Amino acid sequence: MTNYATYRRMQHLKRHGVDGQAIYKFHEYVTNSHRAFFDVCLPEGQPRARFYEYMQGLPGPEGTAVPVVYDSRKPKRAKTGVRAELDFDAERPVVLLVGGGGLAMIAIGALLCLTGSLV
Q1: What's the confidence (pLDDT) of residue 3?
Q2: Which helix (H) or strand (E) holds 50?
Q3: For residues 91 and 3, is the Cβ–Cβ distance under 8 A?
Q4: The model's pTM
Q5: For the packed helices 2-16 and 92-118, what is the interaxial angle rounded to 10 degrees?
Q6: Cβ(9)–Cβ(57) below 8 Å
Q7: What is d(CA 89, CA 11) in angstroms, rounded to the nearest whole number?
Q8: How does pLDDT run across 62-108, given as a tens digit for each residue?
Q9: Which residues contact 72 (CB under 8 A, 6 or more apart)?
Q10: How confident is the model over 45-66, as a mean pLDDT?
């Protein structure tokens, strides 16, 4: 499910993403990595949009500006980096394999239910 969510998020950012900046605010230590929180720099008058990413190393001291790609319709959907570097090809095979397998299992289950109800 996580791979599917990442795949969909990357697709949305690739289609509707806007290059911008975010300010690193703070981090929380989680198992073997950091959850770093960022505030997206939005045009004047729009509410603040905060997002987080899991990172091995921190981007610098608090207040550091980093490049970010965000969806202008939903700025909380953001990812550090630039739009040209977005790569979701690693999640695609897993999503197709698991999704295709899941559809096959649903079809087999429906077939078994139909044949079981006829007997």
Answers
A1: 64
A2: strand 49-55
A3: yes
A4: 0.65
A5: 120
A6: no
A7: 10
A8: 988 999 888 878 888 888 888 777 666 666 676 677 766 777 788 88
A9: 16, 18
A10: 86
